[in-house]
Every structure is written in structure tokens, then in C-alpha cells.
Design brief:
Layout (H helix, E strand, L loop, with lengths): L1 H13 L13 E4 L2 E7 L6 H7 L4 H6 L13 E5 L13 E5 L6 H8 L3 H7 L12 E5 L13 E5 L6 H8 L3 H7 L3 H4 L5 E5 L2 H4 L15 H9 L18 E8 L3 H13 L11 H20 L3 E8 L4 H8 L9 E3 L4 H13 L3 E4 L5 H5 L4 E3 L4 H6 L2 H5 L5 E6 L7 H15 L5 E6 L4 H8 L5 E6 L4 H17 L3 E6 L11 H6 L3 E4 L8 H14 L5 H20 L11 E2 L4 E2 L1 E3 L6 E3 L3 E5 L5 E3 L2
Parallel strand pairs: 8-9, 8-10, 10-11, 11-12, 12-21, 13-14, 13-15, 15-16, 16-17
Antiparallel strand pairs: 1-2, 2-3, 4-5, 6-7, 17-22, 18-19, 20-21, 22-23
Helix pairs in contact: 1-11, 12-23, 13-14
């Protein structure tokens, strides 16, 4: 226990420092009728921090300080235009006014209107700190009527030396307004090497090349992200990467550690361990995850790798996460692990995408977020993916009678309806499996018995999480197994193990099986070694969160050490950790990666969990 207290104090010392605070200058200068702040850049301040403090944009700062030739070092004095409180930057553009809908991200809104996020920030400064459903954004759309990137088909072109906007428009049969609509940066910063997004026009698709025109050299969507990354000064092709022992691998771990609150808990615990708990809220699991991260990091350090962990306490606060993401030091990270809460994941994922840093979310996240971010990894498979990965399991049960059971609530619950559809789709892919669906509330035990086959193996799938409903169906099925000798394999959820009136003996008797993203095989030699080392280091038993923290950190450190920061451009073969299987696959050409591996678990004859055969 003392070692765990020491661990928390260590986290206090390791927690990342915040970016240097930017205070508005009280010095002014007037030039050509315009009044400017004179701001002196200090150590740790980035242009993003300064722009935020003065409610302007990085682009405006650079435009008004072109004499600095791009060098904005500490000690440099820069000019920032003074705007009145109710003014917005002058513009001749037309605007759309968009009301933010639930679950919309700023990225998806920008995609919808064909603008970049900096353009939105220019007219909506507070959007830098997040957007909320119901608020209205002023979108600079020029003369574009609601361009919708989501429903259009695109081609991609890398601008070559001596090419012009007009020549590209002629080459792809695209109107110049359409080119600028989807590539607003081309208005002011058109140059060789930039990637243009161009809509596929009917004229281009139906072009006749009989006149000898050369076929345009287009970029495949799969290569687009890599081409953009290759522009970075730190880019090294993953195929050619060799780890240099002098290089530091930097891992930023963003977790809700609640350091201040836990420090107070430690003091109270020391005074009276019987009355006070050591952790606040759900921190114990988070610190256990962190301990697993430390175990994996130590293994790599002992093997000679130079690893730096930056521990960043997000608490459960989007403002805290924004503060962390404004720290320019975070841009040096090779990998971000976490955060955990959805709103914080959204903030951090945007930062990771903008700065082209791989980020792994330990748990399931919103699918649309994954589709839009090529640097995001989701460790836990979604329900749809997890069920898809049970195909081989169900294929091994050919000749069985499958009964999908739900109740009225399940028939109206969107989440359960989705699960039912996923199971229905996967069962239909397996030859020699018959599928029946019944609503237990419309006939009860009699309709369930009529769906079963006394001469066949019966696979009963229930998608409900309602204890009363599960217990009712379970007790009836248990009677059929004991009294009428029906052969039943029950397929459901791990949460059923916690239902008080369901005995584990009955679960084993019906070959109860369920999906799980992780599995601790205590007979495995590597698992035994980890447990022994964990006990020695932390004086406690590792739970699933400790294994999770170890496996995730160990896997991604392995990828970075072998292939470098841009490891995801060289896909890895499926592999096995202590408790996880790893098989990351892209969810979309311009999207991130979802783990496609999971287990199907069931109880053995001695009531221990094992992988289903």
C-alpha cells in the first residue's frame, strides 16, 4: 500500500507542465492609421497561445509580421492589430450560419462547408475551446451554396512546379470556384507540393482521350495521409526507419488522475486508514492502468530504449484538456495514450490530427470520430466489429438452431436493435445455421419452447442487459436443460456474471459464452511473470486495468521502436499481448484504425474461464 501512495506522489512530480501564460501587452503603436499591440514573445509561448489571448489567428499574426521571415523566437517583438470588442476581421466573403447539431464535430462542419478550421476560428474565436449543440457558427463560404464533402466523390492532385490553378481546372474539367471551394488555402497559398481535393465532374468522368491528352496523375486516397505527413521535417519512411539509441521516444499519457484530490486522500488515509479511502472517485482503476503503463515503459528502458513519459492529468475537464493541448511541448510526442472521457477524447483527437501524432483510445469511441481521423487508434472493438469477429466461432457450430430472444424494450431500444441486427447479419453468413427471432413478451415461455429443437443443439442469444428479463428467461432455459434434456448454448454478455440469482454452475451447465475484448489466462507463463513483477513493484495484485495499460503501451512502443513515429503507414501482422489481441484495420481511406480482435469466452468444467473452442 505504501508503494501505491508513493506512486501517486510520483505522478505529482511527473505531471506535465502547462504552457506559458500569455498576458496581453499594455504597449501600443500606431502605423498607417492602424493601432497595434506590441507583444514580446517569452519562453514557452507559441503563436497559437498568443493568437488565443488576443482573439485573433496565427495567420493574421504572420501577415502583420512578415518582416520576421517566419522566425518567432522568444524575445522577438511582434505587432498584433487592436480590434474593438464587437468587430470581426474585414471580409468581402459571404457567410452561412450553421446551428451545431448534437454529436457534430467542428471537423465535420468544416468538411460540410469546404472550409478549414482556421477560417472558422477567425469569425468564431470561442470555437477554439469547443463547440456546443445549439450554438450558431458564422461560416465564411464565399459564393458557395452548402458544399457537402460527405456525399461527393473526390480525386486528389499534388501540385507540380509551374502548374497553375487554371491549368489544373482545365486538366480535371473543374470550375475554378469549385476548386477554391474545397481548397480555400489555394486562394492565398497556392504552391507546388500542396494536395488539392477536386470533385469528380461528369465532364471529367466522360472525357474522351482520343485526342492524345495525357492521363492526369492522381493520388490514391490511401496515400493521401502519408503524402501530407511526408512534408514534416521529422518524417522518416517507416520502411527505412532504424532506432537510434540517442533518440528519445516521447509518450504523452493523458488520464483523469485527479492528482490534487488524491493527494488530499493520501493525507486523510495516513491519519486514519480505517475511515478514509486511498483513492477519490474511480481513480483506483485509472492508477492501476497507469501502473501497467509504467511496467511496459520500464521493460523497454531496461532493453536500452530511451523513453520519456509525460503524465498529464486531464481530470474530467475539457478546459483542462484544452490547457494541456495548448502546451507546445505536447507537439513533440510520438504517441498519445488516452484520454478516457468522451469530450476529452474529442479535444485530444483533434490536437493529434492537427499535429499528426498517433493517439490510442483505450476504450470504444464515437465511430464518426474514428472515420475522420487517420491518426486515431481505437483499442476496444465496437459492438458491430466485435460481433463480426465471432464469425469463425459461429461457423464452428454449424447444424445448430439459433434463437435470438428479446423483449418489448429491446424491440424499441436503439442500442439493442443495433445488436440484434449485427447478430442477425453474422448468423446469416454461416451455412447450415437456422435463425429464429422471438419477442418473449409476445408469448412467453411457450413461444420460446416452440422455437427450440429438442433434437438439435440450440444457440440462444440474448441482447438484453435487464436483470429481471435475463433471470426469467435463464430460469426457464435451465429447467429445459435439467428436466427435458435440451442441448442449449447460451450466448450473452459478461455482465450476466454479476446477476445475483444466477449461479455460475448453471452458466457452466448451459455452456454460457460471451464476447470480450480481453482475457487473462492465468496459466500463461508471461502472465505469471507479469503478476510476479507487479506484486514486487507495487505490493498489490494486478487487475484487468493494469494488464490493459501494459499491453497497450508495450504494443505501441514496439511499433514506434521498429518503424518510428509514422509506424501506421507500415501495417503490422496480427499479434498477441498478455490479455489483448492486436489487429488494427483502417475504418475508412482517410480514417483511423480499429482493433478487430476479440475473444469468445466460456466456462470450463472446473468453472474457470477459457477461450471457446
Amino acid at each position: 500500500m505504501k508503494k501505491r501512495i508513493l506512486l501517486i506522489l510520483t505522478a505529482l512530480c511527473l505531471a506535465g507542465t502547462l504552457s506559458a501564460q500569455v498576458v496581453k501587452s499594455d504597449r501600443f503603436i500606431s502605423m498607417n492609421g492602424t493601432r497595434y499591440y506590441l507583444h514580446k514573445i517569452t519562453e514557452g509561448q507559441s503563436l497559437e497561445d498568443i493568437a488565443k489571448a488576443y482573439q485573433t489567428t496565427v495567420q493574421d499574426i504572420k501577415m502583420n509580421n512578415q518582416d520576421k521571415t517566419g522566425k518567432f523566437q522568444p524575445g522577438i517583438l511582434i505587432k498584433i492589430p487592436v480590434l474593438s470588442n464587437n468587430s470581426t476581421p474585414p471580409s468581402t466573403q459571404e457567410f452561412a450560419y450553421h446551428t451545431v447539431e448534437k454529436k457534430q464535430t467542428l471537423y465535420s462542419i468544416c468538411q460540410k462547408y469546404g472550409v478549414n478550421e482556421e477560417d472558422v476560428y477567425k469569425y468564431n474565436p470561442e470555437a477554439r475551446f469547443g463547440i456546443k449543440s445549439g450554438e450558431t457558427l458564422k461560416i465564411p463560404v464565399g459564393h458557395v451554396d452548402n458544399p457537402d464533402r460527405q456525399n461527393a466523390e473526390f480525386i486528389y492532385h499534388s501540385v507540380k512546379q509551374n502548374e497553375s490553378i487554371n491549368s489544373i481546372c482545365v486538366l480535371y474539367k473543374v470550375d475554378i470556384n469549385d476548386l477554391l471551394k474545397y481548397n480555400p488555402k489555394a486562394k492565398t497559398d497556392f504552391k507546388a507540393g500542396m494536395i488539392l481535393t477536386l470533385p469528380k465532374t461528369p465532364e471529367y468522368m466522360n472525357r474522351n482521350n482520343s485526342d492524345g491528352e495525357d492521363e492526369p496523375e492522381m493520388i490514391d486516397q490511401q496515400d493521401l495521409v502519408r503524402l501530407e505527413a511526408a512534408k514534416n521535417s521529422d518524417y522518416c519512411p517507416c520502411e527505412n526507419f532504424t532506432y537510434n539509441r540517442s533518440k528519445t521516444i516521447r509518450i504523452a499519457v493523458m488520464l483523469p488522475l485527479f492528482i490534487s484530490e488524491n493527494a488530499a486522500k493520501i493525507d486523510a488515509y495516513r491519519q486514519d486508514p480505517n475511515k478514509n479511502s486511498l483513492y477519490s472517485k474511480n481513480s483506483e482503476k485509472i492508477y492501476e492502468f497507469y501502473e501497467g503503463v509504467l511496467m511496459a515503459t520500464r521493460d523497454y528502458q531496461l532493453r536500452g530504449f530511451n523513453i520519456q513519459l509525460d503524465i498529464l492529468d486531464t481530470e474530467n475537464s475539457t478546459s483542462k484538456t484544452n490547457e494541456i493541448c495548448s502546451n507546445p511541448e505536447l507537439k513533440k510526442a510520438d504517441l498519445i495514450i488516452g484520454p478516457l472521457y468522451t469530450d476529452n477524447v474529442i479535444k485530444a483527437a483533434k490536437f493529434a490530427k492537427d499535429n499528426q501524432i498517433a493517439m490510442v483510445s483505450p476504450f470504444a469511441i464515437k465511430n464518426d470520430l474514428l472515420k475522420e481521423n487517420p491518426y486515431l487508434f481505437q483499442m476496444t472493438p465496437s459492438n458491430a466489429t466485435s460481433i463480426e469477429e465471432t464469425l469463425n466461432y459461429f461457423a464452428g457450430l454449424e447444424g445448430s438452431n439459433v434463437v435470438l430472444v428479446y423483449d418489448n424494450e429491446g424491440n424499441n431500444n436503439p442500442n439493442e436493435i443495433s445488436l440484434i441486427k449485427n447478430y442477425r447479419d453474422i448468423i446469416k453468413k454461416v451455412d447450415n445455421l437456422t435463425l429464429k427471432e422471438i419477442n418473449y413478451d409476445n408469448g412467453g415461455a411457450s413461444i420460446l419452447k416452440s422455437a427450440l429443437n429438442s433434437a438439435q443443439n440450440n444457440i440462444v442469444i440474448m441482447t438484453s442487459t435487464k436483470e429481471v428479463f435475463i433471470s426469467k428467461v435463464f430460469n426457464y432455459l435451465n429447467g429445459l436443460v435439467k428436466n427435458d434434456h435440451y442441448k442449449i448454448l447460451l450466448f450473452g454478455s459478461q455482465s450476466w456474471e454479476k446477476i445475483g440469482n444466477i449461479d455460475i454452475e448453471f452458466l457452466q451447465g448451459m455452456n454460457f459464452s460471451y464476447r470480450s475484448s480481453s482475457f487473462v489466462n492465468y496459466n500463461n507463463g508471461n502472465v505469471k511473470t507479469f503478476i510476479s513483477e507487479f506484486r514486487s513493484r507495487f505490493n498489490s495484485e494486478p487487475g484487468i486495468y493494469a494488464f490493459s495499460g501494459f499491453d497497450i503501451t508495450n504494443y505501441f512502443l514496439g511499433q514506434i521502436s521498429k518503424k518510428g513515429k509514422y509506424f501506421h503507414f507500415c501495417p503490422d501482422d496480427p499479434s498477441q499481448g498478455l490479455v489483448y489481441k492486436f489487429d488494427f484495420r483502417k475504418v475508412a481511406p482517410l480514417g483511423g484504425y480499429e482493433n478487430h480482435s476479440n475473444y469468445v469466452l466460456q466456462y470450463s468444467e472446473d468453472y474457470t474461464l477459457q477461450e471457446a473452442e
